[in-house]
Amino acid sequence: MGSLDGRVVLITGAGRGIGREEALYFAGEGAKVVVNDPGVAIDGSGGDTGVAAAVVEEITARGGQAVANTDSVTDWEGARRMVETAVDTFGDLHVLINNATIERNRGMADLSEEDFDVVVAVKLKGTFAVTRWAARYWRERHAAGERVDRAVINTSSGSGLLNPLPAQSSYAAGNAGVAAMTTVGALELGRYGVRVNCISPSMARTRLTLEVPGMSEKPADGFDPLSPAASAPVAAYLASAGCPLTGQVLSVRAGSVAVNHPWSRGDRVHKDGLWTVEELAEAMKGVSVDDPFDKLAQALGGALGTTGHAQIQEMIDALLDGGSSEG
Ligand SMILES: NC(=O)c1ccc[n+]([C@@H]2O[C@H](COP(=O)([O-])OP(=O)(O)OC[C@H]3O[C@@H](n4cnc5c(N)ncnc54)[C@H](O)[C@@H]3O)[C@@H](O)[C@H]2O)c1
């Protein structure tokens, strides 16, 4: 008996990295998996239908059940077809994992309109598009009298939640939007028996992170803290019928799982009536605010040994001066 026996699961971007690990893990736990992936490059260009097919082959070779779908999450009709593939092949859809992403990392002064649009189209609109078609299907099933636990698991990133990174304005904005949409989904879809949660992986060795210093070194044996497999059991917990959680964003780094409390309110100043600019300037001197450079240094200090405002500034200068263009 697996923890996901009989659950039908659609995973977007499941051909590589974290999504592939989730597909293998879920199938091993008894789920029937739709492996979605058009097999594009990191920047979203090209495509390779063999990427999803290879994961399906791996699953079936181990005795599991899976089917490939190579539509893009940016294609409205393609998103509908993914849901149909699950229902037509396996008779239902219980779990949707929105995992697909691309990246085009450039400073704001260099990022083109197209660079911004395509990243947000995959990360944010793609998450909405597939969820929307799943929600329609689930609403119908609920109206027909079915009472079954269903789950959406979105995928966000520290770059968007805790530490938006320089050169990632589109990726960070998309990920922050995914976390916000998780709350909306939990509030709206609960009445159809759908729980909506989000994982935020961190420092997982995939093609997106291989160039970060230290990420490509794999321990010869034993526990690998950078393994892209770390998210799979957390996603499986959120996908399992007995899980009580909804509306949560869980950060995952190796064996650590943390509940996030997004954008909580901090210090406050108050006056009965409207402020003048001078009064507010004076009152704000006593308010504690986060310095984004210090916050990022704190986060990277643990992972990469980068500490202090000056080191972060050097990192940003190197990043932005490396790929700048006029126009
Ligand atoms: N690797 C990390 O450390 C890390 C950190 C934070 C968040 N994440 C998130 O985890 C998720 C997986 O990232 P990864 O590191 O495994 O990346 P990856 O590049 O290894 O895998 C992403 C997959 O998504 C697919 N994809 C791209 N565009 C698509 C589209 N339009 N439709 C369907 N599939 C598409 C790609 O072909 C690729 O196989 C992403 O949502 C990412 O933002 C990863």
Describe it.
This protein is an alpha/beta fold. It has 2 domains: 8-259, Rossmann fold (3-Layer(aba) Sandwich); 274-327, no CATH class. Helix content is 41%, strand content 13%. The protein is built from 9 helices and 8 strands. The protein has an 8-stranded mixed beta sheet with strand order 3-2-1-4-5-6-7-8, with helices on both faces. Helix 1 (17-28) packs across helix 6, helix 4 (113-143) packs parallel to helix 5 and helix 8 (292-304) packs across helix 9 (309-322). It is globular, with a radius of gyration of 21 Å. The model has no long low-confidence stretch (mean pLDDT 93). The structure holds nicotinamide-adenine-dinucleotide. Nicotinamide-adenine-dinucleotide is lined by residues 12-13, 15-19, 36-40, 42, 44, 51, 72-74, 99-102, 122, 126, 155, 157, 201-204, 206-209, 228.
N-to-C series of helices and strands: EHEHEHEHEHEHEEHHH
CATH topology of the largest domain: Rossmann fold
Summarize the biggest pleated sheet: 8 strands, mixed
Task: List cofactors, ions and other ligands.
Answer: nicotinamide-adenine-dinucleotide
Strand content: 5-15%
Give the % helix.
40-55%
Q: Radius of gyration in whole Å, from Cα? A: 21 Å
Short description:
By secondary structure, the protein is α/β, with parallel strands linked by helices. It has nine helices and eight strands.
SSE topology sketch:
Elements: E1 8-11, H1 17-28, E2 32-36, H2 50-61, E3 65-69, H3 76-90, E4 95-98, H4 113-143, E5 150-155, H5 169-189, E6 194-201, H6 231-239, E7 249-253, E8 256-259, H7 277-284, H8 292-304, H9 309-322
Parallel strand pairs: 1-2, 1-4, 2-3, 4-5, 5-6, 6-7
Antiparallel strand pairs: 7-8
The structure holds nicotinamide-adenine-dinucleotide.
Keywords: Oxidoreductase
Protein name: Short-chain dehydrogenase
Organism: Spongiactinospora rosea
